[in-house]
Amino acid sequence: MIEGRVWRFGDDVDTDAIVPGKYLILSMPEIAAHAMEGVMPDFAELVRPGDVIVAGRNFGNGSSREVAARAILLLGVRAVIAESFARIFFRNCVNVGLAPIECPEAGLIEKGQRVRIDLVAGRVDIVETGKRLEAVPLPAEINAIVESGGLEGFLRHRAGRGTT
Amino acid sequence: MTVAEKIIARGAQRSEVQPDEVLWVDVDLAMIHDSGGPRRIWPMLEQLGVGVRDPDRLVVVADHYVPAKDVAAAEILETTRAFVDEFGIPRFHEAQGIAHTVMIEKGYLQPGMLYVGGDSHTCTGGVLGCLALGMGSTDLLGVVVTGRTWLRVPHTVRVQIEGSLSAGVGAKDLILTIIGEHGMAGGLYRVLEYGGSALDGMDVEERSVLTNMCAEIGAKTGIIPSDAVTVEYLADRGVDVESGPQSDPDCSYIETWRYDGSAIEPVVARPHRHDDVVPIAELGSAPVTRAYIGACTGAKYTDLSMAADVLRGRKVAPGVLLQVAPASREALARAVGDGTAATLMEAGAHILSTGCGACPGIGSGVLGPGETCISTTSRNTRGRMGSPLAQVYLGSPYTVAAAAVAGEIVDPRPMVGSHG
Question: Which of B64, B91, B127, B185 has a Cα at 20 to 30 A from B71?
């Protein structure tokens, strides 16, 4: 179960807006200081560990740059809820251990509200209003990767069991 | 089953698969590049205490940071080379061209393959009838270590295009028209499978514009089931293959999108959305300061040749900088060999190095805040090619060349093939 305060973004936020290409040459902490710069220049200063991003359709479209997901994670964001995700960004979230929640009703969540997320059941509760939103449950195969903290942890775990 | 389902079924060692199933599959070939590849993956390999499982199934390309513009870029390239040496990767191409163009030109991709690459435009490779899937760095780590990855079986959309494109209209106009109609999320989680008589008149390079920009409609990938054009292209590259898997006549498409190729007009995507597409006839006044012919989308040999068809005997307008960054050395060599490059240069084009260049805002030729650019690349989101204040229109190589001559965006058809 994840609970956190909401930052709101709109439709079609692309990875060039999350991490502009000119920063790709920098180190990960330097990149994170620019996260979401293309849509909210002061996001990295304002966001607090445990916060949650809520967005509209097609979040994370464009470049496959995984640092977009890593930068958000490094700032302490626990989960990204969106009406829909660009598929590579969705995979990148899973692989770095940032929970992606596809929630067609995400538009009902407002900035500053707190949400409580059940990944496996596929539910998002808005704490202030008590409203419950249906989300797409993460398939067990994919949730196993998120629960390992990402694909690196998942591979280590499997190697430890001798099943890779 | 559709061709995509057949390729996934083979990878999963199953006789049949259904859309939306999540499966682990064997990967036939993987590609990583200098930006998202060794510099990101190598530290994780060290953390795991493992190496590259099968160096023969991995291709490494350096295209994003070539030529190195500063020491930090040079260090990224050094890391890339050191990785190739450390793990004995036989297929490494530095500054030979953009990965997606190189993978096709070298004949590495073949019909029926399950191919993954660490870049969103990996889908370009679907032009040769393989399932070409773009992913991020850690996904590629998984493939490099285990030879496997997980997939959700996508639904397939059949994109049926009958009738030839008119003179002066390119595949770029067609794909932008499709994206404009369906929106940048119109293909989300789906595979676009192309067919129809319009493809008969296109070579592999021109067809690849249709698969390349599947990334811009949100699709998992695009695929053109192999045909005589595919087989002949690969034969010319010394790769002898039979035609690959085809969709069954009774396969299930989630939708069919139909287009009349002969009705497609020159279009542009307006700043800052690649799905804000309008016919040039309806655009109104749009002066430009920069014309850019570059990227895996729009600087292959055929693209340079289309630009030359407009620029022959004409000059770039004062106040416009036309830059050409060929998608590969092979493209440039062919253009030099047949006089195409001379035509571009006589018109006033500035020829840049091959590589990803200004398209991702990393290499040479990025835009300043006051510039308006017309570009053959694939994305015009704010800040993509440099300053967030720059304006970028997307169009075909004909359209970009015509805009360079006119100083504003115009219908290129009157200039195509007519000596200026």
Answer: B91
B339 and B191 share one domain = no
CATH number for the domain including B360? 3.30.499.10
- Contact between residue B274 and residue B379 where contact means Cβ atoms under 8 Å apart: yes
Identify the domain boundary among B261, B282, B303.
Answer: B261
Q: Name residue A82's beta-bridge partners.
A: A55, A102
8-state DSSP, A35? T
pLDDT at B158: 98
CATH of domain A2-160: 3.20.19.10
Per DSSP, the three-state class of B147 is coil
Condensed to tens digits (0 to 9), the pLDDT of residues B154-171 reads 999 999 999 999 999 999
pLDDT in tens, B329-364: 999 999 999 999 999 999 999 999 999 999 999 999
Edge-to-edge, what's the strand order for the sheet holding A114-118? A99-102, A79-82, A52-55, A2-8, A114-118, A123-126, A132-134
**Interface contact flag, B76 A25, Cβ < 8 Å:** yes
Whether residues B252 and B278 share a domain: the answer is no
Clarify whether residues B332 and B199 are in a common domain: no
DSSP A112-136: T-EEEEETTTTEEEETTT--EEE-P
| pLDDT band for position B417 (cuts 50, 70, 90) | confident
Q: Are B347 and B324 in contact (CB under 8 A)?
A: no
Residues with pLDDT less than 70, chain A: 159-164
In terms of domains, do B204 and B296 share one?
no
Residue of B21, B98, B137 best to disrupt the A interface, most CBs of A under 10 A: B137
- Beta partners for residue B372, in sequence order: B391
B171 and B51 part of one domain:
yes
| B192 inside domain | yes
Which of B261, B295, B310 terminates a domain? The answer is B261
The partner residue sitting opposite B383, judged by closest CB among A16, A95, A156, is: A16
Looking at the structure, tell me whether residues B201 and B325 fall in a common domain: no
A89 to chain B nearest CA, in Å?
8
- How is residue B336 written in tokens? 């030099």
Provide ipTM, 2 decimals.
Answer: 0.93
Which structural domain range is residue B378 located in? 268-415
pLDDT computed for residue B114 by the predictor? 98
Residue from the list A25, A57, A61 with its beta carbon closest to the beta carbon of B73: A25
Residues in chain A closer than 8 A to B65 (CB atoms):
25
Same domain, B26 and B131: yes
Report the pLDDT value the prediction gives residue A160, as an integer from 0 to 100: 65
Burial code of B74-106, b = ≥16 C-beta within 10 A, e = fewer? Answer: eebbebbeebbeebebebbbbbbbbbbbbbbbb
